Amino acid sequence: MVIYVLTKTKKPASTKLDRHMRFFSFFLLLGTFFVIVFDPLSMESFEYLLKLSLPVYMYFFARRFIQSKEDLDGILTTFLYSSIFVAGILMYEVVINPIRVEESRGMGRIQGSFGDVVSYGIYLLFSFLIACYFYFSKRKLVPMRKRLRTLLIVTAFALLALVNIHHIASYTIFVLILLLFLVYNFKTNKAAAFGISLMLFSLFIFFGQPIIEKKVTPLLETDVAVFEGEQESSKLLHGRVGRWEYMAGIFTDQNIFVQFFGYPFTLKYSYHFVGVGSHSDYVRILFLSGYFGLYAYLLVLFSFFKRAKQTGYAQRFLAYGLLAIILLYSVSVVPTYYPPFVYMMMCIFAYIALPFKMISKKVINE
To answer: How many CB atoms lie under 10 A from the CB of residue 19?
Structure first.
């Protein structure tokens, strides 16, 4: 399929986001090369090669494949349908029997057949974001009742997943996307926005407090204890702050060349620093590609934000929602290390990177 796309599709005109992505790709691939130089013939190095370089080849493949809004919508629809399988696993775990449970902070987290709860979080957040996006973008094509029904079904499954994976970052991002959806809705359809807000408020009155007390409060007990002086600051964010302090000490002890280009240049074992062990995408990218690589990555995100501001209403909502997921997840999770996340992220990036004449700028209330 890759060969077919590369040979049959026209090479797209380059934009500033493409140039910034190439800049970032250079440092990312350079760091990845030195990661596998340490142990070039093992299966582990091959796995890291594929995962660490995935954002690069996924982005440039998507740039050739996605040439219009219809292409993007097709991919988003496919992801939404693929999430039905994940929803089926979720229902099985909740109703019949959990496949895999991990104890954390005194609470059982269902994980299905995934490696951890973040995979559930990725599917629920992207499904919710896409359903909200289609609610806006298909206003002229799909009746209000049908769009709202789809949105409510996806929201129900997202909430069901949230209260069973007990993941505070996913809770936070879900609420932020919901608020963004309400803000955009009030700008375009005040009556519908008021009705949805009233329904959400009613649900919160009846179910909000028990959920917060049983599902959310236990996740914050350690952080509250830190702020009250009962625990050390290293215990913040489920102990992640302590891990970052330890990693920061290792990184800053290296010579200036390694700090600017990445820890793999030490030619030491670095898998635990450039994979999920860092528990922060910012820290992971810093270790993988140094200060230059982290700067290039942030430049890509800023360039994406600037271009998204000039797109249509629905596309802007989708882009801002994606940025919220990236920026917040990256604090305590390594989202760009998970293939499903990278697939969706880079497809949306590829669409926003299109020349503006190829991007749909029709607002939803035209």
So the answer is: 14
Give the rounded distance of the alpha carbon of 304 from its chain centre: 14
Q: What tens digit of pLDDT does each residue of 271-325 get?
A: 989 998 889 999 999 999 999 999 999 999 999 999 999 998 899 999 999 999 9
Task: Using alpha carbons, list the distances in angstroms from residue 133 to 127, 177, 286, 301.
Answer: 10, 11, 32, 20
User: What count of Cα atoms within 13 Å lies in the side-chain half-sphere of residue 165?
Assistant: 27
Structure confidence by residue, pLDDT tens digits, 215-265: 776 777 777 776 776 777 777 777 788 889 999 999 999 999 999 999 999
Q: How far is CA 34 from CA 88, 192, 360, in A?
A: 41, 54, 41
Give me the helix-helix angle, 281-308 and 16-37, nearest 10°.
Answer: 170
Left if phi > 0, otherwise alpha if psi is -120 to 50, otherwise beta: which for 68? beta
Q: Note whether 313 and 306 are within 8 A (CB).
A: no
Alpha carbons 286 and 280: distance in angstroms, whole number: 10
Contact 308/299 with Cβ under 8 angstroms? no
